[in-house]
C-alpha cells in the first residue's frame, strides 16, 4: 500500500453523496484513470496502483466504451492481471451502450470486444457476460436494453454478503476472545497450583537444610549439659522433647565408626547444602500469575462479550441497514 500512496495521493480527489437510496452510503467507488497506449507516461505507477486497488475491493467493474472500445494493450494487460488475482469479483460491462448506434452496430462492437478478450488466455473463460448499461436521458430515448439495475442489485447483494460475513466474523471473534480469556484464566489457576506446590517444596527443603544441621550441632551441646540444667534453661516439658531428639542423634552418631565420622560430617554438610540449594532453586521456578485486578478485568470482558455483544448480533444487521436506508424505505 505504501508503495503507491506517494504518487497516488497527489492525483486523488473525493466526492461525497448524501443519498441513502440503494444502500449508497455503504458504497465506496474508486474510479481509476483511463489508460492509453503509446508513450504516455503517468505520474505514478498506475498499473500497480490499479491492481492493488482491485485486490482490496469487493467488486471490480471493467467498463468498455463502445466509442473507443477500451481495447488498448495497456488496459487489457491490467484486466488480465486483475483476472489472475481476483477473477471471481471481476465483472465486464458495455458502458454508454445507447451511443453504440443501432442494435447491429452494438452487436458488432460487443463481438469485437469479446474476440479481443478471448485472444488472451487469462480472459478466455466460459460463461462470459457483458451487460449493456447507460445513464438514461429523457431528452434522447433509446431502445437499447439498459441493465444498469442489475449492477445495483449486484452491489446490494455484495453489501448484504459483506455485512453478513462481518457479523459472522464478529461472532467468531467473540468466541475466540471468550475462549482465549477462559484459557488464560484456566492457565492462571494451573500456575497458581503449581506455584503453591513449588513453594511447598522450597519450604521443606529449606527447613530441612536449616533444621538438620542445627539439630546435629545442638545434640552435642545438649549432651554436655545435665537434665537439671536443661530443665532450668528450657523448662521441664521442652527439655524432655529436646533430650529425646538429641538422644536419637547421639545414638545414631555412636553407631558410626570413629574413622568414618569425618566422612559422615562432610557428607552430611554437603547434603544440607544441597537441600538449601534446592530450596533456592524451587523458589525461582514459580510462574507469573495474574493479579486480582487483571483477573477481574478479564472476567468483565468475557461477561460483556457474552451478555452484550453476542446477544446484539441479531439486531446489528437490521440497525446497520437502517442507517443507510432512505426515509421512504423505512
From TrEMBL:
UniProt KW Electron transport keyword: no
Subcellular location: Membrane
Record keywords, A-Z: GTP-binding, Hydrolase, Membrane, Nucleotide-binding, Transmembrane, Transmembrane helix
Signal peptide from the UniProt entry: none
InterPro entries xrefs: Mitofusin_fam (IPR027094), P-loop_NTPase (IPR027417)
GO molecular function, one term: GTP binding
GO cellular component: membrane
TM annotation in the entry: 200-225, 262-283
Protein's UniProt keywords contain Membrane: yes
GO BP terms: mitochondrion organization
Main localisation: membrane
Listed name of the protein: Uncharacterized protein si:dkey-98f17.5
